[in-house]
Amino acid sequence: MTIATFIRSCIFVSFVCLVAASAVSAPVPFKMNEVEYDITVKIDPANRTLEGKSLITVHRPRELQLLLGAGYEVTQAEFNDGPLGIGRDQANQPHVWNIPFHFRQQIQFLIQWKGVLAPLDTALDHRQTLARPVAVSGAEGTFLPDSSDWYPRIAGLFARYKVSIELPPGQKGLVAGRLIEESDSEQGYRATFEFSHPAEGIDLMAGPYAVDTLLHHNIKQKPVQLRTYFHPQISKLSQDYLDAVKGYLDRYESEIGEYPYSEFSVVSSPTPTGFGMPTLTYLGIDVLQLPFIRSTSLGHEVLHNWWGNGVYPDYRSGNWSEGLTTFMADYAYKEQESDAAAREMRLGWLRDFAALQPGQDAPLTAFTSRTHGASKIVGYNKAAMVFFMLRDHLGEAVFQRALQGLWTTRRFKVTSWQDVQKIFELVSGQSLEFFFAQWLTRSGAPAIELTEVKNAAAGSGYELSITLKQSEPAYQLQVPVAVETQQGSAIHKLNLQQAQQIFTLKLTDKPLSVSLDPDLRLFRHLAPGEAPPILREVMVNAATQTVLLSDQPEIRKIAETLASKLQDRKLEIVASGDPLSAAPTLIIGLQAEIDAWLATKQLPVRPNEISKKGSAQVWTLARADGASLAIISAQDAASLEALIRPLSHYGRQSYLVFDGRQAIEKGTWPMLVRKVAVE
Ligand SMILES: [Zn+2]
After folding, report:
1. Orientation of helix 417-428 relative to helix 383-394, angle to 10°
2. Which listed residue, 14, 287, 564, 611, has the most CB atoms within 10 A of its CB?
3. Residues 629-658, buried b or exposed e (16+ Cβ, 10 A)?
4. How close is the Cα of 281 to the center of ligand 1, in Å?
5. Which CATH superfamily is domain 6-303 in?
6. Are 280 and 267 a contacting pair, CB within 8 Å?
7. CATH of the domain spanning 448-516
8. Residue 237 Cα, ligand 1 centroid: separation in angstroms?
9. How far apart are CA 293 and CA 611, in angstroms?
10. Rounded distance, CA 669 to CA 604, Å?
11. Spacing, Cα 271 to ligand 1 middle (Å)
């Protein structure tokens, strides 16, 4: 593939909804509203056959490229009533038609094609599905991702479409859009969908679905049809999902503005995957059964109908939609839960960021979509924190009005970070140039230090002088500093503009201690030891070393598989007798081997929280020099093997106890706010 294609996708990792619009390669410039597809597609999942016919209309045509995947045979191809040719010289090549510039107002193509789809492989995980955008079909499900080029498409142009789907009895199918016609009989199922806004592409899903519905009225009292397309084994979950979607629509309509579509569907997938498209979300059967998905990921997916699938990110200047969606969904739910839960999430973001290597970090303007753990830490988390800091800077009311302005002015438009900045400037009446420039175009984060605190009596009160230092080039920051007195703790915001500045605070009560940003409201480098160690450090840090303690080949092999699953790169294995390096280290072994190794290295014994519980224990510890260790201890080969699938989902934890595959206890070591005592 030489031409950019998009898939709109949600990715589940750590069972937290992580959604991405994944650009397979750098997108090409696009124009809106110039292309229309009228497609009829007949699919037989039992035989995995697809037959399609498409009438493509291009208004105001220029030089174009028309594409169809390699796996299809073209049986008819016409261009303005003349023959077009099949677009390739050899079988197994993609069909590519290069169309020269046209002076006509409008041109049309008529293409008929057919092919055999790949078999559905339910063993694939989401990442494999994403890495391999292949159209698959089987009795349990059919998924034709847009990026598989399952229909002839004009490269790089947004399009409106109408798609009619024909399936055998017992199957139902859909694409994003409004259901305008439907029939279900002994002859089979037929449904026609229309998408009347410019869309990035068309994804088609089908399966042995039971459909449940709920009618919702939007904020302007227009009807919105909510549906679940669920496999029979989970149809009992339908009502809860429909109610939850209704709740999210109400919430985001009141926060942002009218929901732009006439439907929303939750569709089950036989593979453990997650995709978000306009008007629907496509989630694995297993994922849908997880109890927390309705209260977390589902809301994130629904919100993408505003940010991402409603206002389109301009990938050329960075994708802002994941950060804003994470901020208004995942993070907002934590704020609703408690201040402590919200702070814990910010700590998680900063901690993950601190575990990145310099090469893994990139400015937000370079983020297009999630491709690996490190890109999520910047593209989702840092961007969400940028919106959090922006709200702190502007205040809740102005921030909210700006979001509403973004929605009313940019609906269905390709929108850059600069456009987002302009709206916030317009609504707040202030320049935000410094704010956006430093957070978007720079990689990294400021490292801020409280270097000196001096107190002097002044009249009936006190003068407290605080010296702050930051890395260069300096950021412009409102640094929250907590000053504790006998009357309690008060936050002072210090306007730090230079590499080093001294601030003087006049106080009536005697200051006892000072702490820097204890509530974690700034995106910054955590000081060494500020955050307790977690498992993710050995997962994302490319310098991580791995120690396999066992000599038994069977155990070593399992340990190696487990380490590879956690680290997702070539392992750097060091001998158990080697001295520990300054890099994070992952140690895997059986219980007795681990205990002996800890004793040899003069490291603390296994902590009380996990001691001897379950069939396997995992914990982190920070060494005096700041480097962290993650230790995996299992009672036998089977217990170790049982960790391969679940463990990578627990990167945020400091310790875990497993009983087989089940995590029965988990937690993070407490964080200590470092207070500088005032003399
Ligand atoms: Zn998302």
Report:
1. 10
2. 287
3. bbbbbbeebebbbbbbeebbebbbbbbbbb
4. 11
5. tricorn interacting facor f3 domain (2.60.40.1730)
6. yes
7. 2.60.40
8. 23
9. 31
10. 15
11. 19
CA of 316 to the centre of ligand 1 (A): 18
Kindly state the tokens that stand for 219: 């904020």
In the chain, list all ranges with CATH 3.30.379. Answer: 536-667
- Which residue matches tokens 């940003």? 517
Q: Does domain 312-440 have CATH number 1.10.390.10?
A: yes
| Structure confidence by residue, pLDDT tens digits, 440-464 | 999 889 999 999 999 999 899 999 9
Question: How many whole angstroms from 8 Cα to the centroid of ligand 1?
Answer: 10
Q: What sign does the CA torsion over 657, 660, 661, 664 have?
A: negative
Q: Are 534 and 377 in contact (CB under 8 A)?
A: no
Q: How far is the CA of 415 from the centre of ligand 1 (A)?
A: 16
> What tens digit of pLDDT does each residue of 282-329 get?
999 999 999 899 998 999 999 999 999 999 999 888 899 999 999 999
Closest by CA to 228, choosing from 187, 283, 186, 189, is: 283
Q: Which CATH number fits domain 536-667: 3.30.200, 2.60.40, 3.30.420, 3.30.379?
A: 3.30.379
Q: Return d(Cα 248, Cα 240) in angstroms, integer.
A: 12
**Ligand 1 centroid from CA 340, angstroms:** 24
* pLDDT beneath 50: ranges in the chain: 1-29
How many A from CA of 328 to the centre of ligand 1?
A: 11
Task: For residue 302, report the distance from its CA to the centre of ligand 1, in Å.
Answer: 10
